[in-house]
Predict the 3D structure of the following.
Amino acid sequence: MERFDAIVVGAGPAGSSAALTLARKGFSTLLVERGRSPGVKGMFGGRIYSWALQDLLPDWAKDCPVERYVVRENMVFLTEDASLGISFDSTKLGQGRAASFTAVRAKFDGWLAKKAQDAGATLVTGIRVDDLWKEDGHVRGVMVAPNDRVGADVVVIAEGATSILTRAAGLKADLEPREVSVGVKETIELPAETIQERFGLGEKEGAAFVFAGQSSLGLRGGGFLYTNQSTISLGLVVSSEDLSRKKVEIQEVQNRFRLHPAVQRWIRGGKVVEYSAHLVPELGAGMMPRLWGDGVLVAGDAAGFLINNGYTFRGVDLAIASGIAAGEAANAARSAGSMRAANLAAYDRFLRASNVLTDLERFRRAPLYMKNERLFDVYPRMLMEIAERLYTVDGSGQQRLVDAVLEQAASADVPKLKMLLDLLQGARSM
Amino acid sequence: MRIIVCIKQVPKAQELQVDPVTQTLKRVGVPSEINPPDANALEIALTLKDRHAAEVVVLSMGPTSFDESLERAVAMGADRSVLLTDRILGGSDTVPTAYALSETIQKIGGYDLILTGEETTDASTGHVGPGIAGHLDLPQITYVSEVRIVDNTVRARRTAEDGTEWWQTNMPSLCTVNFGCNKPRSPTLTGKIRVKRGGVIVHWSCADVGIDPKKVGLLNSPTIVAKVDTIRLPPRAGRIFSGDAKESVRALLDALIRDRVVAP
């Protein structure tokens, strides 16, 4: 039987980071990927915060397949026929550890997996691992078929949101609809020059957009738009509970979102060249599985490492940081003498050192707050009506800001106390 | 027991393209696969390996790009593979190919059963399997869909025009295998790891095997391709029905009924 010191399942950002870290520490490492090549099965919005990559590969920027560095952040509230946006420009956004960039997963994941291979990890693609080989609850390797087992001292599960192995390992119960959202994304082709002109960007510069309100037809969720080199990533993350409760198809939501004038102006003339959909873990720290067991660690999306606090969507940076932490933890456990859970518990310490767990806990309330439907329906409409009052000059008398706000608040269907509570809760959780 | 399976790498059937200038099959830059009947032959060999203690050796002749298919064969469960690769083999038709493969099989030696596909999907001659049996003076059963080893004899079910026949031969012998007679297994994780560890393919040149250069290559191939015709499809009319949705759908439907594409 084939044996390795460590097996990593999934060659996404979490898996490749774990494999790279393990290989550097001298572990003979097998990295198994279900897709024909890394990244083909992966999906994300489109932006990567670079700080964790900087920890993993200090000279990442040399050959990393960056599409564009994000220099402008936008937040746009939508109602059916209006939009209200906030735009933040700063050259500081693209600097140092705070740099973030847009990327295409097939390229990025391929690049990162190659780094793991260069460090000595063995990459095998086109194999789906859906069971673990266990003895008395201790994970001894992976099992593809009864006669196709491969042994290892430690298995790092980095399989993504579907978390089949995490459940097989007994670290997590079955997924509930409220724990996952559905993410959809269209890749829209436009010439690089058109993107730069339309968004007012330089050659390597990019823009990021978060859409709230009517983007999701009033269902809980939100939209995003990222500029790549010569494509735009446009998509939505919508509560799967709401989709099934209101019997709405995600394609319909995406169609309506795409046709909104505030979205159309960015993508018009573009050609949709790719459509993808994926599960998104939604409850953050609230849905985390146990992160380690005897001979096993969980990293990335499989561990629910995702932060959506309303203005930033983070996943890949947490995946990379957790991959590094998993590699470090396995190394610490080996030094301590065995891969038993008690030794792998060092994972917690490494995750905290890179603020992964701390950030997840800090924004623990955000997903619940995000689940407040008023945020996606009532408040954006209020905002828009206030804006309409302020900017309407038709000789019928113009309003002062304070009057417009008070009047609008008074006419809303939501009790003022509730509104105040929402405001306070929002400020705290974000 | 040693089973040798002869395979060829062919362009994927769904992706076949004909070079508009040379009128020959494009072989560069198109996705390839193991010739499907050869994959069925390999599956029979691996099934025999599951039942009996057998070593499965995969053999191919062609450029080093064929390694891709040999690696896949090992990942599926073959023990090792041999690629006969040499520039002087270029342009060989089925006569030199059968000769060169039979020489290589003799160099591998110790064989009890040789399996080939019934024919290839890119040339469809069906010559090479029987040709090898001729060179090695082996009993052969063609067009088989099942092979059993019983008391050191080969029993094979052969598809005939008017039914099926069961044939029995002594070993060593050769069988050519029907396309689609089984479902070739997928590569295993263990198999793919073996490939990654390396050493599962050896490359031999004609000199390594002792193949007579005067018997191979384009000049020593009796087949001459005199002319290749491609069937040209008539261009499509490409009519666009536009305007009011209801009216244009009506107009489209009328046109389809008129042209007898759909029934009224």
Chain A is about 35% helix and 25% strand. The CA atoms of residues 157 and 298 of chain A lie 5 Å apart.
